[in-house]
Structures are given as C-alpha cells and as structure tokens.
Automatic annotation (TrEMBL):
An example molecular function term from Gene Ontology annotations: sulfite reductase (ferredoxin) activity
Protein name, per record: Sulfite reductase [NADPH] subunit beta
Known function: Catalyzes the reduction of sulfite to sulfide, one of several activities required for the biosynthesis of L-cysteine from sulfate.
Record field: catalytic activity: hydrogen sulfide + 3 NADP(+) + 3 H2O = sulfite + 3 NADPH + 4 H(+)
Family according to the record: Belongs to the nitrite and sulfite reductase 4Fe-4S domain family.
InterPro entries reported in the protein's UniProt record: Flavdoxin-like, Flavodoxin/NO_synth, Flavoprotein-like_sf, NiRdtase/SiRdtase_haem-b_fer, Nit/Sulf_reduc_fer-like_dom_sf, NO2/SO3_Rdtase_4Fe4S_dom, NO2/SO3_Rdtase_4Fe4S_prot, NO2/SO3_Rdtase_4Fe4S_sf
Cofactors demanded by this protein: siroheme; [4Fe-4S] cluster
Protein's organism: Glarea lozoyensis (strain ATCC 74030 / MF5533)
Upper classification of the organism: Eukaryota, Fungi, Dikarya, Ascomycota, Pezizomycotina
Length: 1398
C-alpha cells in the first residue's frame, strides 16, 4: 500500500516535471484530508536537488508573469527549443528527452521578469548549464533552432527520467499508474491523492466477509497526458469491475473527467478484462468512516444495476481552526531566505517557514512565533538527548571499531559547533557502511549530527504586540535561537501605516533587553551587511534578532520600487543599518556598530545612555553632525527664513526699488539667466535678491513689491525639482493676497519636446500656469509672460531678449546710463586655464568636511582625474524635504587599455568597490571598471587602492584622450596580444603629463613622497597645452571580423589589418565618429568615423597623436555642443582635415586596406584560441557586477579570480571574458562557474545583444531609467520572440538615459534614448555590425507604446525577412524607416512628422 513517505516523493517529482516541461498541474488536496496522516520524514535534500532545480522553482514561486504561472493552465502552449549543430562545430546536440528539458527550463527561466540588482540592477534568472553541455552561445553564431510544442511523449520522457533518478537514489519505483492488491482481484478502486493511503489500509485490513475484501487499488501518478496503454498494462486481467472515486466539487459535466478517461481507454479498445466501470463522487471522509464508505462503494459496484455518480462522504469537511492571532509570513521573504540558505546550507533549520516539515498543522498555527519558538526548543532538547545517546553509543558494542571511535570523537566535540559540523559527514559515511540496526537508527536522525542554525522567521506584524509575540519569549528565554523578522512597510507609507496602531521598534526592544544580539539589515541596501549579521547571529551564544527591511506596496512591485524605498529609508535614518553585540564589551570592543550613516531619534536616545553614542562618535567622527541633528520640516522652514532674512539685511544698504528674482531650474539654464538678471538689476540700482523658488518662504509673497520668476520645464510639463514645493504651496491657495505685488514670469521650454499635437500644452506649462495663478491671486503683471523656446534660432535667449527690456521699462530703470560691462560667464576653457594643470582647489575641497560636495570648477577638473561628482537621484526629494544636501558621492572610472586585467587586479577592484563604493562595479562600454557611490571622505583612499593595483584613473574622463579600447577576441589570443600592445602604447603615449594627479591623490600622510613614480614637478603639457582638448577624445581598436568595440563610434577608430604572415601589419584609421547629441537640437548629431587611410603599426600612435593635435587646434572651444572632432571634420571636410594631419605628421596615409566585419556583439560561452587556451565569455547584464540573493555573481567572480591563472578581458559590450584557461584547469573552472551559476549564457539573442548605460540613480544627466529598466523591457518582448521562433536571433537593442549616448545607441538596430522619466525616443534601422546609424522613429513614447510597436514588428520580421536579413536592414527595406547614410542626414526624413501647430 502507498505509504505517506511515497506520497511525498511523487509531489516532488510532479513539481520537477512542471518545471521541466513548462507546464504541469500538481494536485493538492485540502489539508483537512491529510490532517490525520502520519508526519512525513524529511526528504533527503540531495535527492530533491537532483530532481528539482530549486532555484528555478523559487523563481517561479516568486514571479507571476502577467497572471500566469507554470502551475496553471493559462492556455499557452509549452514549447521546446531544439538546437541543431552550430556552424562553429560546437554541437548542442539534437535535444530530446531530458536534454530538451534543460533547454526548455531555460526558456522558461528567461520568461521570468528580471530581478533587481543594485538594483542593482535587475538581472536575469540564472541556471547552471554545467550538466547540459559546454556551450558557445553567440547571438551571431548559434543556428537552426526550432521551437515546437511539448508533446505527450516529451512529458512521458521527462517523467520517466525523473522516476529513474528516484529509483536509483531512493529505490522507490514509480510508473504512470500504480496497482496494489492481490494479483487475482476481481474488483478494484481507482482513486487519487492522499485518500489512497487511508482507503488502502482499510482494504488491507479487510475481513473476508467485507464487501471490499480482496479488492485492488489503482491510482495515477501521471494523470495528464493520459497514457491509456500504460493503464491497460497496469490493471491485472482478473479485474472485472472498477469503482472510480473522483473529487469533483464544482461539476460542470455529468461525468467526471477521470471516469471519461477510463471509459475511453477500457471500453473503446482492447482494454483488458474490465467489464463494469462505475463513477462515484468523493466528498470528505473522516478516517473512522472509511470502512463505511468503502462498503457503500463496493456494494454499489457489485450490484446488478450500479448507480452512477453516487455521492460518498460529506460535501463539506470540518472547518479549519480560526486562529484569532494570525500573523502571515511575508510573501516576498525569498531574498532573505535565499541568503539564509546560501550561508547555512544543510545546517539551516527553519522552525516556522511555510513548507517546512510541520505537515498536518494548519499554516496559520505553524506561522505563529509561539509555535516556532516551541518547536525550536523541542528541537534543541531533541538534539541534547541525541548527544547523550551518542555518548552512550560510543561506549556500546553495537558498532564497528571505526564507527565507535568516530562516535567517541564526535561526542567529545559535541560542544564545539565547528568541529561537529566537520565530523558529521565522515561519521555518517562510517555508520552507513557499518549497516547495523543501531547505526540505522542513528542515521534516521542524521541531521542532528550537525549543529543546526535554527531560525524563526516572522513578519513586522509581530511588532504591534511585542509582549505577546514570540519576540518577547525568545529574548526573555535567553535561549540560543535566531529570529529573522522581515519588515515590509514602505518608507513612504510608514506614517499612514502607524496611524491606527503603534508599531514598536523590535530592534530597540531587543537591545533594551540587554542579552540579545540585534541587527538591523536591508538586503537592497547592503548585501554584505546582511551576510555579516546573519553569520554573527548564528555565532552568538544566546538569542539573536535580525530585523530585515524589504519594503513593498504590492506583491508584484518591481525590484526597482523595493530598492528605491529601501534607499530612502536607510539614507534618512528611518531604517538604520546596525549590529549590536552585547558580548563585545567583554572583548573591549564597542557593542554597537553603525553600518549606515544616519539614525533616528529613538535609537540615538538609546545609545546616548550608557556611553554608546560617545563611543560611536569617537569611532566615526564624521557621523557626529548627522547623529546629533534631527531633521524635519521645521528645520527646513527655519533655514529658509534665516537665508532670506540675511539676504534682506545685505540689501538694506542699497537704494532703489526692490526686485526679487526666483528661479526653478533642473540643468542650470533658468538659474544662470536669473543670476544674470539679478546682477543687471543691481547694476541699474535695484535692490535685487536672487534665490531658488524652493528656498523662498511663500508666506512672504504678499509683501513683495516686484517679483519675477524664471522657471524652466521638466518632465512632462512639470516644474523642475526646485520649483515644486513653491508650486504645491501656491497652486490651490486662496489665502494669499497679491493685490500689491507686481510680477512677471519668464518660462523656458521646448516647443517640440513632446511633439504630438495632443501634447502641445506641455510647452512651457509651469510658467504659464504660474502666470495664471498669480494673476488670479490679484498680482499685477510687470510684463506679459516671456516664453523661451529651445527651438528658436538662439534657443531660449531669443524670447528672453524681448522680455528683459520690458522689465526694466516697467521698473523705470530702462534708461540708466553708465552700466558697467558684464563679466563674461566662466567657461570650461577658463576653468582649465586657471587650474594650473588640473590642480584647481581639489585638494582644499577634499579637506572640507562641512559638505560632501566639491566646488563647481573642481567638479569639471576632477573629471580629468577620472572621477565625477554625482548625487543619488533616488534620494533627492526625500533629502530635500529633510533639509539635507543631496546625497553626493563620486563615480570613479579606471583607465584600462584594451580592458585587460589580471586576476589580482580583479580582486583589488572588488575590494575597492566593497571598501569605498556601493559594493557593485560597472564594466563599462569602454572596457573599464567604474565605481559608484564613493563618498568624498573615501575618495582618496579609493584612488590609492586603484593605483596600488597598478591601474590609474588619470584621463579616464575629461577633455583628453581617454581609455584606449581593443577588441577582446578570445579566439585568437596571439594576434590579440599584438593588437592589444598597440592600444597600450597609444594610451601611454597620449597621457597628460601633469603631476597634479600624483600630488592630489597619491601623496602619503607626510606630504613628501608620492606613492607612485613621478615626483618631478612637470608643470607643462607637451601634447595638450594648458587648455587640453576642446572636448573628450576617444580611441578604439577593432579586429575584424569583430566590431565589438564599435569602431565607427569614436573620435579615432582603428581597424586592425593582418599581414600576409598572419601578424598585425597596421590599421585603417577612421576619424570623427561620435555619439553625443542634444534632443531636438539638429545642429548636434551622431556620426560614424570617416576613413583617413591606412597606417603601419609602428606609426599608429603618432598618427593618433596628430589627429588629436589637429583637433586640439581646430576644434570649437566656444560651443561645447559643437566641440567634438566629428563637427571639426564635417566643418572642414574630410580631405582638408586629412591634409592637415598629414602636414603635421610629415607622412601620408596609405590606401585603405580591405576588411570585413560581421557583428558588433560578443560570442558567449567557451571558445578555444589558436594556442589551445580556453576562454569563457560571461553574460554580465549591462556590465553590473553585484551580488543579489538570487545570484551571488560578485562573490563567484572573486572566488574564481583567486584561483585563475590567466587574465580577465572586459568587452566593449560590458561583458567579461575569463581568458587563457589551460585545459588542465578547465574542470575546476567549470565547477566553480557552475557553483556560482556563472556558466549560464542561455539567454535570448536579444538579451545577449543588448546594452544599457548607467543612468539613474547616479548619472546626473539621466532623463530616464536605462540599466535598471532595459532588462525588464526585454523580458516583456521575449514572449513574442519565443512565439515567433526568434529566441536565439540576435537583434542589437540598446538604451541610454539621455542623448549623450554612452551605450552607443545610435548604432543599434533598435534603440531607446531617455527623454523624460518613463519616456523614450525610439530609433530604428542601425546596421547589425555597427556600420550604420539608425534614425528617429517615434518621440517620447512610453512602455505601452513601445510594446505596441515592437511586438507586431518583431512578428512581421519573423515572417517577412529574407534569408539572413538583419532586423535593422529589414526595417529599412519594408519602409518603416529611411536609411541614415551619414551623420549629417541623421535628422532628415524621420518617420514622425512633427506638427508646428500650437
Ligand atoms: C527631461 C526634460 C523634460 C522636458 N520637458 C519639457 C516639457 O514638457 N515642456 C517644455 O516646454 N520643455 C521641456 N523641456 C525643455 C526644458 O525646459 C528646456 O530645455 C530648458 O531650457 C531647461 O532649462 P534648465 O536648464 O533650467 O532646466 C524638458 C527638458 C528635459 C531635459
Ligand atoms: S547616456 Fe546619458 S544617462 Fe546614460 S550614462 Fe551616459 S550621460 Fe548618463
């Protein structure tokens, strides 16, 4: 008869099948039916893992895709991708059966929406592909994939292989149908589910007179597909009558589906001997009533005229207990659960997690803290008696000698957790080989050989009634038990959530108790801090409480929302990150460690007692300002008042009419105009005061005499950030009386920003709205509203030139004489010139700790040193509201010619990101490392860390030659080495000579010796001169047929040409490529480089130098939007430019050499080079290296770097190559890659060919999300790709957050460029290997429109493309978009007609 143990295994097998086949239904029965079952022993974890991909399961469990999951029949057809041999000889095999399942599972994986990364970034789900095969998955080279629907045969194959594994591992046998009972039975029961056990037992125990004696029981292990032939083979020929028991609650047909299946199989073909089949409806049956039910069924079956559809049992089962206290477990807890799993693995014991071994207990009870705590204590006692048992066993004679010795050793070490864990495996093996009864008995409790890490998991619901919750019990008990409490209240909703009930601070409560380890963590803020806290909690001898933050509004919130909420809460001190270990004191260490920057008042008060705060301040003097200040709206109001009053005092000495000038500006236009207006007013004798709208106390408005407001337009007709509070205060205000106020508005906008007719009202909307509201409040216009339009010949200056004189006239100061000449505005050229070769006041700025920012000119200069100041844009609003300066931090970019790094350098870079940055690294589109979130106080240390690893950051940004790129070319390492050497040579040759870099960043404390060679003061720049270049300058090398560095997109592009001897001979030199554009400014455009000719490899660095010098002397230094080499060349003409370079060089370019490109993307997976070394290209989505709960990629790469003997190569597509792996080291590398899931490259061709820039939250220029959004967008398109058989097809898709174009969007086949938050310009028609620019297809469209365009277009492409036709070419052929032939025609013939009507 089926035992309960067996029942559990088919559940897992069914689960595995659903995951493998992409479709499946697991039938669960009401818990009440199995409430009386015996408890089910824990399944062997390794077996479960072997048949079931736990990670994939979790992905499914936590991702609902458009309301459909693999568990339900959503009407979709599950499909299999079959890959035939690839052209490069790496065969994926015709995948059948289990092989096919891998592919299928991966297909499913790719349908799951991507998850957050730093969010980080969000990332695709991973699955190790180790078992499947070595794979080269190039979006360019994988061929001949067919997608077909999963068939019944496939399912049978899948399930058979799962069963075969089970047979082998646990010796239990399964088949689609199972018969038990006498082989000569005449009557049988067909039944499903856990009832099989209960009914079976009663039939077994039947007395000879019972109606059901000697009956057989048949059950289905695989119901769909229905395999009739297998059924016939299963049923003994002796069976004549069959009773079918079906649980059909909501009947829609007269006959149950099972009955119909049986009738079809057994009655309509050669179906064995069954003569009578009678259906019954099975209701709830209590165990004691089973005999009665069976009697009824068999009497009916045996009667001459059996009744069909006889109801057996009650229609309703007993009600589940109604617990008054019903804390539910957070459903998004998986991130923390995964980390617990990762850290503790087999040692983890979750007392009250859903799905744990508390079968038979209602979920509501199992989830309560009391239950969990009780069960942990019971568990602990069980282990204690187990230890006693082992102690006595060690001296008994029931074991082999070795086993005895091992038991004794284990018993001696019983108190030492580490030791017993080490001994556990060996001891288990010995007992297994011992095989005696006593050994078997001990083995049945083998999990107790390890010291478990016991956890109780709960939700923030426990915080409302701490005294009654398990928190109190646990902390008060002093037991060594760990609690993980997940708080999901979003930061933005905290006040509302608290209004009714007071939520207590669990962390504080536990700390006050004194004896508990307490940590406050947030996985979306610091992954490593979570790890650290969990490990410490486990090690702490006593109760531990880890409160973990995971804020969400709805369960399907995107990871981005969770990330943003977390960041705000941590940054503002609502959810501080800290660890509290009361045992530290005895070791002379502080009990409290603060891992974030700000803490809330309650925590501060707690720490203020007992000296903890003083200790903390001593340790982190920089925190004192944030610790000792409470922020709030009152502070902000006070600050405003103070600022304005002191301004007013300043003006007191002046005569003339008062004029208040307010501005709102996102990117500085309105601000600089306002400041200039203020100065001009002063020059005319007016008492002018200039301030941002947000700094102005609104209540003062009625007392103004004259006020002018300059506001630009942001978002979609919105006020810029620093004008919003003012607007919110005034827009519906009816109290303000402006009867005595004269005002005027100047609005800055762009009449084509939202080009569609229906969006025209967004043009200068804020200015127009404000003008209306102020007039309604009684204000008198000094002059009509002025409108500045970016589209006018002089931009907003055109409108402004008309407006300003009207203000002077209205104020009676238009005819003032002797106005002093205005100083021209300070330009970048002035800043460079005055900087003393890039020194400026950077050094002084770094020492000023009153702000985390540096001065505006220094912000320009630090770029030359490889670092930009940024601020976290996710936090701007919150910090503003709290009266804090923006969260300033620095981005640091390395200089890494050719993107080649040693494993040691990799580890050092990893350290830099952990110790000084935001724990993530970005591999950039220009093949280098970039760090974000480095705060000013850590900047110098970070720079030193980078330099200690023999890398530098000098000239990684700024108006100089930047990192020199080189194709990463894993298939030809020898050749790569030669070309790479040239990139390094050019890079060194064009380095700036100033010693400012060393002085500022690398000097040691005594300010005497520098840490890196270069002491000599060398205050001149032989190549650059004091003003360096007009704009940035980029050089790249591509090695045909790979254009993976986008050779056409850089100021200088070098195409490597091989000589007849197979070695590098020289380069075709392209000049004038460039990407940066300004939206709606047709004077700006992207451009592909023009070929100047061929140069030998010996001359190439000199040729590059000369191109750079001609640009230095002829580039436009007045207008930075027109300063790149591309404009110099177009203005001059290619031939004239070439002539100037040759003249300076004294040599001539030779004739361009033939070459051929095939693609500009990477080839993923393993490849061998010509020397026999192996290379693996990892898929690093958008270059973000980070750890997440799902995918510990950063840790994995670090571990690999520790043992890797070759090198790493960063690719121009933001991916990474593990290079130069010897055959002998391959197995180890493969094993490690599989362990960290780094070996998966089975993503859709579109994802593999995609690339996105950083954008939000750090890039100051971003107008829309990019890196955090592109993966999501691709997930939304993958369904269409799949349906149309294009999963493997490479389509180059790129996204950037602004038109600066860091991810080179203009060369993609399809691109999205940020226009405003959530809105993008869409471009089509780029060349597949980066040779042709694309063209604007639609402006300012949002996700729904993007999908509406892309989905049918992709479908059409799949149906109408010609052999080998690329997506970009296709879009042009079918007339979707015109071809862009050169940069100058980029704006011509765009698909979207703009309308000029207002
Ligand atoms: C993200 C973004 C959104 C914009 N949205 C609008 C808009 O809706 N309507 C409009 O007239 N101008 C819009 N503009 C144009 C700006 O208002 C205009 O370029 C202005 O000169 C910028 O001034 P600022 O530097 O002071 O912010 C937008 C600009 C940006 C960058
Ligand atoms: S493209 Fe724009 S948004 Fe993206 S990283 Fe570059 S500057 Fe920032």
């Amino acid at each position: 008869m089926a035992s309960t143990v067996e029942i559990r295994t088919p559940g897992e097998a069914a689960h595995a099948l659903a995951i493998k086949s992409g479709k499946g239904v697991i039938h669960f029965f009401s818990s009440t039916t199995s409430a009386q079952d015996n408890t089910i022993p824990a399944e062997d974890e390794n077996v479960v893992k072997e048949i079931l991909d736990i990670d994939l399961v979790r992905s499914f469990q936590h991702n609902i895709i458009g309301g459909s999951t693999v568990y339900a029949d959503d009407g979709r057809v599950a499909t299999i991708s079959e890959v035939q041999a690839t052209e490069n000889g790496f065969s994926n095999g015709a995948m059948e059966g289990v092989e096919a399942t891998n592919s299928s599972a991966q297909r499913i994986a790719s349908e799951i929406p991507s998850k957050a990364s730093s969010v980080g970034s969000s990332k695709s789900d991973r699955e190790s592909s180790l078992e499947s095969r070595d794979s080269v998955s190039s979006a360019t080279t994988v061929e001949q994939t067919t997608v077909r629907a999963v068939t019944s045969d496939d399912i049978y194959n899948f399930v058979s292989s799962i069963w075969a594994t089970l047979k082998q591992r646990v010796d239990r046998e399964y088949s689609p149908f199972h018969y038990s009972g006498p082989s000569n039975a005449e009557n049988a029961l067909f039944i499903f589910g856990s009832d099989v056990g209960a009914f079976g037992e009663v039939i077994d125990a039947a007395k000879s007179g019972d109606a059901y004696a000697k009956a057989g029981v048949i059950t289905a292990r695989l119901y769909r597909p229905w395999l009739g032939a297998k059924l016939i083979a299963t049923i003994p020929k002796s069976i004549k009558k069959l009773a079918v028991l079906e649980q059909i609650r909501r009947k829609t047909t007269k006959w149950g589906p099972l009955l119909l299946d049986l009738l079809t199989t057994l009655k309509s073909g050669p179906g064995g001997g069954v003569e009578t089949i009678v259906g019954h409806q099975l209701g709830y049956i209590a165990p004691e009533t089973v005999p009665q039910a069976l009697r009824g069924v068999f009497q009916n079956l045996k009667s001459e005229k059996p009744i069909q559809n006889l109801e057996v049992g009650n229609s309703e089962g007993p009600a589940e207990s109604d617990e008054s206290y019903d804390p539910s477990q957070p459903k998004v807890e998986s991130a923390y659960m995964k980390i617990l799993n990762q850290i503790f693995g087999q040692r983890l014991y979750l007392a009250n997690a859903l799905g744990s071994e508390n079968v038979g207990i209602s979920a509501a009870v199992a989830a309560t803290p009391e239950f969990g705590f009780g069960s942990l204590i019971a568990r602990k006692q069980r282990r204690e008696s187990f230890v006693d048992e082992i102690r006595s066993s060690a001296s008994s004679k029931s074991f082999s000698k070795e086993a005895n010795a091992a038991l004794a050793k284990w018993a001696a070490a019983a108190g030492d957790d580490k030791k017993v864990n080490e001994l556990a495996d060996g001891l288990t093996k010995l007992l297994e080989s011992d095989g005696g009864a006593k050994s078997k008995d001990l083995l049945s409790k083998k999990e107790l050989f390890r010291k478990e890490s016991s956890w109780l998991v709960g939700s923030d619901a426990w915080a409302y009634d701490l005294g009654n919750s398990g928190v109190h019990h646990v902390v008060a008990s002093g037991e060594n038990v760990n609690m993980l409490i997940i708080d999901s209240t979003p930061y933005s909703e905290r006040a509302a959530a608290d209004a009714a009930r007071r939520k207590k601070d669990i962390g504080l409560y536990a700390m006050n108790y004194g004896n508990a380890y307490v940590a406050s963590v947030a996985v979306y803020s610091s992954y490593t801090q979570v790890l650290q806290a969990m490990i410490e909690a486990d090690q702490f001898d006593g109760p531990s409480v880890v409160v973990a933050y995971l804020p969400y509004f709805k369960e399907d919130d995107s990871p981005l929302t969770v990330l943003q909420e977390t960041k705000k809460a941590v940054d503002l001190g609502y959810w501080p990150l800290y660890r509290w270990n009361p045992q530290n004191e005895s070791k002379g260490e502080p009990n409290f460690s603060l891992d974030s920057e700000r803490i809330k008042k309650e925590l501060k008060d707690f720490l203020a007692r007992d000296n903890h705060l003083t200790q903390l301040m001593k340790k982190h003097p920089e925190f004192s300002s944030s610790l000792s200040q409470d922020y709030g709206s009152e502070v902000r109001a006070l600050q405003k008042r103070k600022a304005k009053d002191s301004y007013a005092q300043l003006l007191d000495g002046l005569f003339g009419a008062p004029l208040t000038v307010l501005f709102a500006s996102d990117n500085g236009n309105a601000e600089s105009l306002a400041k200039r207006l203020g100065n001009r007013g002063k020059a005319r004798g007016l008492k002018t005061m200039v301030m941002a709208m947000e700094d102005y106390p609104l209540e003062d408005l009625p007392s103004e005499e004259n006020i002018v407001i300059l506001s630009s337009t942001a978002g979609q007709g919105e006020f810029p950030q620093n004008g919003r509070a003012f607007w919110e205060g005034i827009k519906d205000n009816t109290e303000l009386d402006l009867a005595t106020v004269n005002f005027s508005i100047f609005a800055l906008g762009d009449s084509h920003y939202w080009p569609r007719k229906q969006d025209k009202h967004y043009y200068n909307k804020p200015g127009k709205d404000l003008d209306r509201v102020m007039a309604n409040l009684g204000g008198k216009r000094l002059a009509e509203i002025g409108l500045g339009d970016d589209q006018d010949p002089d931009g907003y200056q055109t409108g402004y030139a008309n407006w300003e004189p009207q203000i002077w006239t209205a104020l009676g100061v238009d005819k003032v004489e002797g106005i002093p000449e205005e100083a021209p505005p300070i330009t970048n050229e002035d800043i460079k010139l005055a900087s003393n070769f890039l020194r400026g006041t950077i050094e002084e700025g770094l020492k000023d700790t009153s702000t985390m920012a540096i001065s505006a000119p220094d912000q320009q200069l630090t770029k030359f040193h490889g670092t930009y100041m940024q601020d976290d844009r996710d936090l701007r609003d919150e910090r503003k509201a709290a009266g804090l300066e923006p969260a300033y931090s620095f981005m640091i970019r390395c200089r890494l010619p050719g993107g080649v790094a040693t494993p040691k350098q990799w580890i050092q870079m990893d350290d830099v990101s952990n110790n000084f940055g935001n724990e993530t690294m970005k591999l950039t589109t220009r093949q280098t490392f970039q760090f974000h979130g480095v705060i000013k106080t850590k900047l110098k240390s970070a720079m030193q860390g980078i330099n200690q690893s023999l890398m530098t950051t000098i000239a990684a940004c700024g108006d100089v030659n930047r990192n020199v790129m080189c194709s990463s070319l894993p298939t030809a390492s020898k050749y790569h080495r030669q070309v790479f050497a040239c990139s390094a040579k050019i890079s060194t040759h064009l380095l700036p000579a100033t010693t400012a870099y060393h002085e500022i960043w690398l000097k040691d404390e005594n300010d005497k010796k520098t840490q890196v060679a270069g002491d000599a003061v060398q205050d001149y720049e032989p190549l650059y001169g004091p003003t360096y270049l007009p704009r940035k300058f980029k050089i790249t090398i591509a090695i045909p047929p790979h254009n993976d560095t986008d050779v056409y997109a850089h100021d200088v592009g070098l195409i490597a040409i091989k000589g007849k001897d197979g070695n590098l001979a020289g380069f075709n030199l392209l000049a004038g490529g460039g990407m940066g554009v300004t939206h709606n400014n047709k004077k700006t455009y992207p451009r592909t480089g023009s070929c100047l000719g061929y140069v030998s490899k010996e001359d190439v660095h000199i040729a590059c130098e000369k191109v750079m010098l001609v640009q230095r002397d002829h580039g436009d230094r007045k207008n930075r939007k027109h300063a790149r080499l591309k404009y110099t060349i177009d203005d001059m003409g290619v031939d004239v430019f070439r002539g100037k370079v040759e003249e300076l060089w004294g040599k001539k370019f030779q004739k361009e050499q033939p070459f051929k490109f095939q693609s500009n993307i990477d080839t993923f997976g393993w490849q061998k080079d010509e020397t026999g070394l192996n290379h693996f290209t990892f898929f690093i989505e958008n270059g973000r290296i980070e750890d997440t709960a799902e995918f510990p990629m950063k840790t994995g790469l670090r571990e690999i770097a520790k043992v890797h003997k070759g090198e790493f190569r960063l690719t121009g597509n933001q991916h990474l190559i593990l290079s130069n792996v010897d055959d002998a080291d391959l197995p180890l590398m493969k094993e490690m890659m599989a362990k960290y899931k780094l070996d998966n490259v089975q993503f859709s061709g579109m994802r593999l060919s995609s690339s996105a820039c950083v954008a939000f939250p750090t890039c100051g220029l971003a107008m829309a999300e990019s890196e955090r959004y592109l993966p999501e967008l691709i997930s939304k398109l993958e369904g269409v790709l799949e349906e149309n058989g294009m999963r493997q097809d490479s389509i180059v898709m790129r996204m950037t957050g602004c038109p600066n174009g860091c991810a080179r969007p203009w060369l993609a086949e399809v691109a999205f460029v940020g226009k405003a938050y959530g809105a993008y310009n869409m471009y089509l028609g780029g060349g597949y290997h980066g040779q042709r620019l694309n063209k604007l297809y639609r402006s300012s469209i949002k996700e729904d429109e993007i999908l509406d365009i892309m989905k049918p277009l992709l479908k059409r492409y799949s149906q109408e493309r010609t052999e080998g036709e690329r997506f970009g070419d296709f879009c042009i052929r079918i007339g979707m978009i015109k071809e862009t032939t050169e940069g100058k025609t980029f704006h011509d013939d765009v698909a979207e007609e703009e309308s000029d009507e207002e």
